[in-house]
Amino acid sequence: MPERQSSRKDAIRNREAVLAAADALFTRRESPEDVTMADVAAAAGVGKGTLFRAFGDRAGLLRALYEARLEPIRQAVESGPPPLGPAAPPHDRVPALLDAVLCFKLDNRRLALALEEGGSSSPYRAEHYERWHSLLRAVLEQIPGPTDSDFTAHALLAATRADLIEHLAEEERMPRESMRAHLANFATRVLTSDPLQGLTTEE
Amino acid sequence: MPERQSSRKDAIRNREAVLAAADALFTRRESPEDVTMADVAAAAGVGKGTLFRAFGDRAGLLRALYEARLEPIRQAVESGPPPLGPAAPPHDRVPALLDAVLCFKLDNRRLALALEEGGSSSPYRAEHYERWHSLLRAVLEQIPGPTDSDFTAHALLAATRADLIEHLAEEERMPRESMRAHLANFATRVLTSDPLQGLTTEE
DNA sequence: ACAGAATCCGGACCCTGGGTCCGCTTCAAC
DNA sequence: GTTGAAGCGGACCCAGGGTCCGGATTCTGT
């Protein structure tokens, strides 16, 4: 994993160039899978060798882009104001988190798509998924009731899968706001279910 | 789209052979993506040309296998006894349907995985997804309350995505029965939420 | 049973796209 | 200025999906 920083200015410049070029390409092109690594290299005015040295492989490049874009939201979640930040009551925070994920993926559709469906190794092994999941799980745990937070967190996050979002937006022409409303509604329903009625989880 | 039946017996024999070989390969091999088309052809004792003529492309082969395996469940859903069949009350039928999907994907993990993550064109364009979705949606519609069935159906089905199932089973070592219990629990929670508490869906 | 036509067979072949290699250039430390 | 470590880039490699076509097989009409 060639992840360590170089101090050489050409290396740094090229890294930036690649990031910018890739970013542009992924947002412009229709489908993420017709952005080839050669395309990116060419658009950045760089050789393929350089590109692969900087990011390891395709997934590495995607990851780097994704993480960069994700940073602001990460901040907001970790230390921002309610309802996203840690001070928010769990019942509000869960829908807020899901809404944040949804909006992020709407704003970065192509990228999220490329990263999630990107073939080898499921999205569930990605660290950023791991982060969302464990956070959501922790928040769910603060809500009383016999809900099993682990599964619930997975199931809720599944509703924000990039290709589902894409399908709803592109095929079903569902507008952004109603998607948000539906997701919020869904999350709320999951949370506000009557605990007395819930099955006890066996095992 | 070379989908029409041939009357020639060699064609039919070869089609069967390919189906059988592919089935065997996909269940044996670790990851679906290291079953190549050439492998399948070889295992079936057939040339690649034959294989591609019979199924069009990789996705076509997968689809054919999948549909074949799905047939019994389809029967049970369309005309079987409750709680899967049409006679079941919606509140019971929804979890039953999801459970059926879950079990099916557990029993055909590799195949479902290959089909869903199979790169080009999202799983949401597949006819079998369309079928599950519209059925689930119809059943949800029979339940009173301001739930928007379309989105809810998508969200519930998302919890049965092949790669999530795979992750839970393989990485988190979650046993089959507790997965089923959790999913049932989740579905029930979605259904039994207090309608008075639900947000009205705007738009 | 036989000819002719239609269909199918199969593996050599093509092509795309991710990833590697290595001789040459550029940087920065002395 | 010298030097060697790091970086550069594009030619190259390879796997795997998909195509092609000469030859074999099967169907149909008589």
Automatic annotation (TrEMBL), chains A, B:
Residues 12-73 form the HTH tetR-type domain. Pfam families: TetR_N. Signal peptide: none annotated. Residues 36-55 bind DNA. PANTHER family: HTH-TYPE TRANSCRIPTIONAL REGULATOR RUTR, POSSIBLE TRANSCRIPTIONAL REGULATORY PROTEIN (PROBABLY TETR-FAMILY). The keyword DNA-binding applies. Keywords: DNA-binding. The keyword DNA-binding applies. This is TetR family transcriptional regulator.
